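DATA CLASS: polypeptide
GOAL: derive structure tokens

***
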Amino acid sequence: MAGPRVEVDGSIMEGGGQILRVSTALSCLLGLPLRVQKIRAGRSTPGLRPQHLSGLEMIRDLCDGQLEGAEIGSTEITFTPEKIKGGIHTADTKTAGSVCLLMQVSMPCVLFAASSSELHLKGGTNAEMAPQIDYTVMVFKPIAEKFGFKFNCDIKTRGYYPKGGGEVIVRVSPVKQLNPINLTDRGYVTKIYGRAFVAGVLPFKVAKDMAAAAVRCIRKEIRDLYVNIQSVQEPKDQAFGNGNGIIIIAETSTGCLFAGSSLGKRGVNADKVGIEAAEMLLANLRHGGTVDEYLQDQAKFIVKKSEDEEDASKDTYIIECQGIGMTNPNL
């Protein structure tokens, strides 16, 4: 398939890794050769970082493709995809690079593979500037599965900044096509639950303090629901390094899910981490939509004001996402 290459300017949108992940996945799905230039041009460390590189190499291996210019610091790559086969593949960032972002680039590809895939993703599971693995499992997974596929995500080891060392195993069977979904009815909040964790040398009290502060913050605004945040000490053999953080989820009567989360940093007290997550959740509930800000931003959209009488007073918008209507040519 030596057709014309698709040329992508890697400095557009937020000029980071996202444009690279999206264009590589689409190149792989559509079988179109790709060149991306000016990769992460505006970032303090421009070019490919370990997490981007390991993601690219996994996509190359998934489809027996060819990849040029793929090294740390490179600002230009070319990728020539072949047929997506599936199988067992490993991507290891060898840093705290996010396993969730590795999943983001590979998931669309393995859904349209010729056979099932097992992806061993290594790096940070709960790291800054990326979804926490708990968000991926508790929010992204159930909503994504509404499109008509199932995936399994087995968290073997958790890894934190700066060492990483986490591993998740993702198992996916391919589909013929995805079904469109309609998420316009928010319903009302029926449950609020979450998980506050400490790992490594951090005392368990930190988890309890994060949870308690988050509960207090939510109670000020939502008084009639029990807020069930579990405090967890990650078992020594299931976590690498030290870390703490919290994720809180609100579930509605129609199955919508919203989250707020935060990670501890050196010198930031536990209450503050808990409150930050609670405030993020409350902000996501206040806007009255059916998804939170992190689930909403993942494709091409048409935004129009809702015509519904009830909504008219509230500045409600219907967001339509135009998919590419992909059918699996490998099945």
Notes: The mean pLDDT is 94. The longest strand covers residues 189-199.
